[in-house]
Amino acid sequence: MRARQAAGSRATSHKPLATIVAITTLMCLYGCDGAGKPGGTSSILDSSAPSPAPPKEIASSALALYPSLDGDEKLSLGVKVSSVEEMFQELKPKNHTVPTTLPQGLSPDDYAANGWEVGDTTAGFGLISSGQRVVAAIVRESVKDRDEADAIVTGYTRKVSSVTPHKYDLGDNTYTFWEDGQTLLMILESPGKKDSVQLTLALGYKPVMEYLRADPIHAQIDGRKVGTDTGAKGASSRS
Predict the structure, then answer these.
(1) Among the residues of the chain, which ranges form H helices?
(2) Which of 145, 155, 197, 236 has the most CB atoms within 10 Å of its CB?
(3) Which residue in 178, 180, 155, 213 sits closest to 24, CA to CA?
(4) What is the number of domains present in the chain?
(5) Minimal CA–CA distance to 138: which of 17, 13, 25?
């Protein structure tokens, strides 16, 4: 997934968007206790919301996640979990990782979780599957600066040129969404440590992404809420 370029910086911090916390939980921190430790129960997701029904089938889509933007290898929805579990291993450190758990509220009768995550949530790779087929995937990594993050977004825009992206600036966070039928792709850029940028890339079946609040409507709702609570700038959108 690398698309390296040098330079500028921007990093400010404020209370994280609900979407950031919700999407992080997809990879084991989908359950953090009050101290932010893996394994507890997250209250971010609405436990009263019904678990989305798994798709009977997943239509082919131009949207995918790429281990390298320079290559053709990709992770698409509907593929077997066993064929992609090792795909993003270059991000995985030798130790200090924890396994993923199923997001709170998703029915274990319909869904399963696979993957790993660094304990501080700065890197990880997680899958949600149904019937051993991938219905959602997420990659988290930290990149050097804003230019490097923007280069990755630009690389994805070129990879999926048949789908128009929509970008939302919400406080210090920038979301880019692509939608193709029932498939959603999201890239979230948020402030990391020092000058770094934390990237969250999520690909998923639309009802599952909506449940995880990783869709344009929930991103804007959560962004406006944070702006009200912290004085951050409001939402703006651009295509």
Answers:
(1) 18-24, 146-159, 206-211, 216-230
(2) 197
(3) 213
(4) 1
(5) 25
Kindly state the average pLDDT of the residues 200-213: 93
Residue type, 3: A
Of 134, 129, 229, 224, nearest to 175 (Cα)? 224
Within-domain flag for 72: yes
Count of residues making up the chain: 239
User: Within a domain: residue 237?
Assistant: no
Q: Residue type at 85? A: E
Strand-pair partners of 205: 183
Task: Give CA separation, 65 vs 12, 55, 80, 187, in Å.
Answer: 27, 19, 15, 10
Cβ(195)–Cβ(188) below 8 Å: no
pLDDT surpassing 80 at residue 45 = no
Residue 26, classed as helix, strand or coil, is helix
Residue 161 lies in a domain: yes
Domain with 164, as residue range(s), is 18-45+63-230
* Contact in structure between 203 and 185 (CB atoms under 8 Å): yes
For 155, the token pair is 């690389």
Q: Is 112 helix (H, G, I), strand (E, B) or coil?
A: strand
The residues, any chain, with a CB within 8 Å of residue 146's CB and separated by 6 or more, are 8, 9, 10, 189, 197
In a domain, 85, yes or no: yes
- The 10s digit of each residue's pLDDT in 208-235 is 999 988 899 988 887 666 554 433 344 4
Amino acid at 157: T
- Helix, strand and coil percent figures for the chain, each rounded to 5: 20, 30, 50
How large is the C-alpha radius of gyration of the chain? Answer: 16
* CB 15 within 8 Å of CB 230: yes
